[in-house]
Amino acid sequence: MTTTLTCNRADLRNAVGYVLPAISATVLPVLTHVEMRLDAGENHIELNATDIEIRMGVSVSARIKIEGEATQSCLIPAQTFADILGMLDGEEVSLEISDHDLLIHTGGSKTRLSLSTEDSFPPEFTLATNASLLSLSAQDLKEALGRVISAASTDYSRPVLNTICFDLKGSELRLVAADGFRLAVDLVSVESAVDEEKQYLIPLKSAQKLLRSLPAEDETLSIQADEGRMLFRWGEQRFWASRLEGTFPDWRQIIYMADGFTLPGDARPFSREGLEMAVKRADIFARDGGTHLIHFVPSDTGMRVSGKSDEIGQSEEEVACNIHLPFNLNGLYLLQALAGMRREFPHLHLIGSNNPVVFAEDDFVCVIMPMAIQEASVPVKNAEEAVPV
Predict the structure, then answer these.
(1) Residues 364, 296 share a domain
(2) Is 51 in contact with 26 (CB distance < 8 Å)?
C-alpha cells in the first residue's frame, strides 16, 4: 500500500529545518529521524523530532491520499531529508510513502530514501489538564531571552544555575540567568496569565535552542506548563522543554527588588556605545592572559577605562561617566551585558569598589561582581555571596 501527499516545497523544507535542532547525535538511531504523521481526515502533515530533553513539532499544509489505515506515521532520516529538499527545484513536491521507502519527486527529479523500520519513536509529550497558560509576544520573549542567556552558568555541576528561570508573578514574566559572577534579569509583558506566582526552570541547552527557534517577526505565543514540562506554541510551531527541578536563587534580594526594580537616585548615566568601544579595545589586551580584567578609575573628565597585557601592551581611554570609586570587571561579562541594551544612555550604579556593579536599562538589569586586582581571575566575593545557592 502506498500513501501519497503533495505540498509546497519551501514550506516542507522550512518545516524540516525548524525541527532539526531537536535531532540528537546519540547512540539511539531513532533520534536521528524526523517523524512524519499523516491523517486522512486532515489537510496537513505533522513533523516531530526529539532528543528526549526537548521535542519540536510543526504542521505543514498538504493534499493527502492514504491507502489503508486512516492515521499513519513514518520515520525519515532527518539531515538527509533536509539536504534533499534544499537542493530540489519547483514550487511543489510530491511524496510517496510505502512500507520501507519514501519517494520524493518534483519536476524531473526523483529521490528514494529508506525509512526506519523501528517503531520506538518517543511518544508525544503531554501536559497535565490543569497546566498553567499565559500569552505574550514571541518577539518580546526572543529579545528578553537573548539579553539574559549569556549570564547563565555553563557549569553542569551547578544544575540550578545551568538554567533560565521563567519567574511568573501575576501579569509579569521575568527571565533570569546567573552564574555566580553575574546576574541578568529582563521583563516580558504578558497579555494574559493565571493569577499565581511560580518559577519554571529549563536547562540552558534547551533555552539556547528555543532562542534560535523563536520567530523574528512578531506574533502571539502561548506558554503552558506543568510540573514536568513547558510547551511554547506559535503559529504552526511547537517547542517542548523538560523542566529542571530545584529552587532558583532569590534574585530579587540581590538587586534590591521587591515588586519592581527602581534605579537608585545616584545611578550614573553613561554612553553605551562609548563604553562598549572602550571596553572592546581594552579587552584586546586584557584577554591575553585569559582574565579579561578591565580597570575603571575616576578621572577629571569622567571614567578611565584600561586593559593591560605584560606581553603585548595596553589600552587606556576616557568615557563620559561620573563615577566616584575605582572598580575592576570582567570585560567579557560587561560586553555581553551591553550587547543586550538598546538605549543610548543606560545607567550604572556603584556602591563600593568591592560591591556588585549594577547596569540597568528600563526593565533589563545586569549585576556583575567586581574582580580583585591581585586575583584577576576571580570575583572579590565568593560566588555564593552574590548569587546564593
Answers:
(1) yes
(2) yes
Average pLDDT over residues 285-296: 91
Domain count, the chain: 3
Same domain, 93 and 187: no
Question: Which residue has cell 555581553?
Answer: 336
Residue owning grid cell 519554571: 200
pTM over 0.85: yes
pLDDT digits (tens, 9 = 90+) for 199-235: 999 999 999 999 999 998 889 999 999 889 999 999 9
**With contact defined as beta carbons under 8 Å apart, do 52 and 31 qualify?**
yes
Residue 382 has pLDDT above 70, yes or no: no
Nearest CA to 143 out of 251, 39, 80, 221 is that of 221
The closest of 126, 21, 8, 115 to 59, measured between CA atoms, is 8
CATH code, 351: 3.10.150.10
- Are residue 26 and residue 91 in the same domain, yes or no? yes
**Which position has the grid cell 575605582?**
326
Q: Is residue 260 part of a domain?
A: no
Given 86, 114, 142, the domain boundary residue is: 114
The per-residue b/e assignment along 128-138, b for 16 or more CB within 10 angstroms, e otherwise, is eeebbebebbb
DSSP-assigned letter for residue 30:
G
3-state secondary structure of 268: strand
Own/partner pairs, 36-41, CB within 8 angstroms, 24+ separation: 36/73, 36/74, 36/75, 36/76, 36/97, 37/71, 37/72, 37/73, 38/3, 38/5, 38/64, 38/66, 38/71, 38/72, 38/73, 38/97, 39/64, 39/70, 39/71, 40/64, 40/66, 40/70, 40/71, 41/70
Residues 186 and 149 in one domain: yes
Judge whether 173 and 137 are in contact, CB under 8 Å: no
Q: Is the residue at 255 inside a domain?
A: no
The full length of the chain comes to 389
255 vs 184: CA distance, rounded Å: 10
| Predicted local confidence at residue 353, as pLDDT | 85
- pLDDT tens digits for range 351-363: 888 889 999 998 9
pLDDT for the residue numbered 170 = 80
Residues whose CB is less than 8 angstroms from the CB of residue 27 and which lie 6 or more positions away in sequence, other chains included: none
- Whole-number Cα distances in Å, 324 to 26, 65, 340: 54, 74, 26
List the domain range (segments joined by +) for residue 367: 268-386
